[in-house]
Amino acid sequence: MGPDYNGYIFKITGGNDEDGFTMKQGIFKNGRTRILFKRRGTLYKPRRTGERKRKSVRGCICGPDLAVIALSVVQKGEKDIAGLTDDPQPNRLGLKRRMKIVSYFNLDKKRDDVRRYVIHRQITKGDKTYYKAPKIQRLITEKSLRRKKIVKKSKVEKAKASAEAAAKYEKLISQFVKERKAARKAEMQAKEAEAKAK
After folding, report:
1. Which of 44, 65, 142, 150 is exposed most, by the fewest CB atoms within 10 A?
2. CB-CB contact of 131 with 123 (8 Å)
3. DSSP state of 33
4. C-alpha dist (Å) from residue 81 to 15, 20, 72, 76, 92
5. Are 58 and 32 in contact (CB under 8 A)?
6. Of residues 59, 57, 29, the one with CA closest to residue 43
């Protein structure tokens, strides 16, 4: 790519050929091919359930017919690229999920407060200045712990109630079987006594 890019490592993320057909990951061909698409994915959005469509796509192997190659910088080299690495853009929106924030900043799960590591944006409207921060997903709060405890308690109570109901039912069934056996025995004895009397 030239001496300006010495030390840079790029990752090929896609591209288009001269006719505008997009490269598709997983098609190991240095050229164009037709594929039958069955479900939603890259390059295909079905309009109806069960719809299938055959479309032309470009394989993921690079060749001389490519007009555009999309790259992402994996490792920075010696010189800055004008308009890309010389002007660092701050991350406007940060991570939202609790465990991702913990792993990114290498925090302690119990001691560190995750809310301090969320990106706050300063917004000025007229004379007023206020800050916005994303709502942290799966954040463990007193409310969530209380709710978890209530759910667990209700599950234990339901299990106990069902066990008691099952025991009552077993007792009732065994009593019914005993009464039935006693009734049959009495009936048989009555029949035998009647037969002897004749």
Report:
1. 142
2. yes
3. E
4. 20, 27, 13, 9, 22
5. yes
6. 57
Sequence-distant (6+) residues with CB within 8 A of 44 are: 37, 53, 55
Give kind and range of the element (H or E) at residue 71. Answer: strand 66-75
For residue 31, the number of C-alpha atoms closer than 13 Å in the C-beta half-sphere is: 2
Report, as an integer, the average pLDDT of 160-188.
95
Check whether 93 has a pLDDT greater than 90. Answer: no
Please give the Cα distance from 19 to 22 (Å, whole number): 9
Question: Which residue type, as a one-letter code, is found at position 138?
Answer: R
> Number of C-alpha atoms within 13 angstroms, CB side, residue 98?
13
Q: Is 122 helix (H, G, I), strand (E, B) or coil?
A: strand
Task: Kindly report, residue by residue over 121-168, the tens digit of the pLDDT.
Answer: 899 999 999 999 999 999 988 999 999 999 999 999 999 999 999 999
CA distances for 143 relative to 115, 138, 148, angstroms: 16, 12, 9
Contacts of 98 (CB under 8 A, 6+ apart): 114, 136, 137, 138, 139, 140
Nearest residue to 18 (alpha-carbon basis) of 35, 29, 32: 32
- Residue where the block lists tokens 């004749």: 198
The domain limits of the chain are: 3-75, 98-132, 141-198
Token code pair at residue 81: 């690229």
Q: What values do phi and psi take at 58, rounded to 5?
A: -95, 135
Q: Would you tell me how many other CB atoms lie within 10 Å of the CB of residue 119? A: 14
